[in-house]
Amino acid sequence: MPDTLGQARDRYLDYIREVRQLSPHTLSNYQRDLDAFVQWSDNRGITQAGKVQEADIRQWVSHLHRRGLAGSSIQRSLSATRSLFNFLGRENGYPRNPAASVQAPRKPRKLPKTMDADQVDQYLNFEQDSPLASRDSAIAELFYSSGLRLAELVAVNLQDIDHQARLITVTGKGNKTRTVPVGGAALGAIELWLQQRPPIAADPDSANALFTSLRGKRISVRNIQDRIKRQGRKAGMSQDVHPHMLRHSFASHMLESSGDLRAVQELLGHANIATTQIYTHLDFQHLAKVYDAAHPRAKRRKGD
């Protein structure tokens, strides 16, 4: 008997859970998107996986768009549906993936929020009055010094830093490792934190962690986000600061100073240079502001 859509969905979810061993978060997203697709198809009388046509997928995408879903959410739903039919093609020999050529609406490209060099200096002016402040200062300095992602910084272990060579090795997206420099300010802040780091660990994993809570447990993503935001408010920043803002500021300042897009790509761990190129837009924005403020012919005349 051919698969119903519900059966096909269940088999595919079992596959990505047991064989591909995707993360619980990814599995949850796939299940939510495929549940919605199956329900929508059932309501239209499309119950067999082999009966789904490209026109049906296009109508599904239009339905999501009319509901007001963001382009990124529609793209994720479409990706889940496309992956489902790729799986069925391999397993059941379906001749064509009905979602293969369907595209989600383009989403506007948002430029990342950054701080200028003076704002970074203002932000990094931590009061070194407690072990927590020393730890938070080291975390913020490391974000800005090496352009790490939040998950990368959480996972850093003591042995990942070569203090003599001033390098840190991290594991990024796709389980890819890279080694990047660590600045003197960040190394100094880390060394101050290590003098105050709790000597007793809560568990074997935390024993290796560079950054821990005062109870000796590896610091969590949420904790870092909260502490970074709290420091921003203490420092009188005009907007909430988050870890990625420090990474974006690192990238923008490195590109502005060096002009070396390939080097910045390597430092950030981007697989595709197109991802890094967004920072050239930030640089051009800065140049445009300088031009508008300084060039005599750039200023509007009265009555224009």
Q: Average the pLDDT over all residues and give the rounded result.
A: 87
> Which secondary-structure class do the elements indicate?
mainly alpha
Order of helices and strands: HHHHHHHEEEHHHHHHH
Radius of gyration: 24 Å
Uncertain residue ranges: none
Largest sheet, strands/sense/barrel:
3 strands, antiparallel
Spatial strand sequence of the major β-sheet: 1-2-3
**Which overall shape is indicated by the principal axes computed on the Cα atoms?**
elongated
Give the N-terminus to C-terminus distance in angstroms.
73 Å
Kindly state the number of beta strands: 3
User: Helix count?
Assistant: 14
Short description:
The protein is mostly helical and 304 residues long. Helix content is 57%, strand content 4%.
Describe this structure as you would to a colleague.
The protein has helices at residues 5-18, 24-43, 54-66, 71-92, 117-123, 131-146, 150-154, 184-196, 204-208, 221-234, 243-258, 261-268, 273-276, 278-294, and strands at residues 161-162, 167-171, 177-181. The N and C termini lie far apart (73 Å). The chain has a three-stranded antiparallel beta sheet, with no helix packed on it. Helix 2 crosses helix 4 and helix 11 (243-258) packs across helix 14. 57% of the residues lie in helices and 4% in strands. The chain is mainly α.
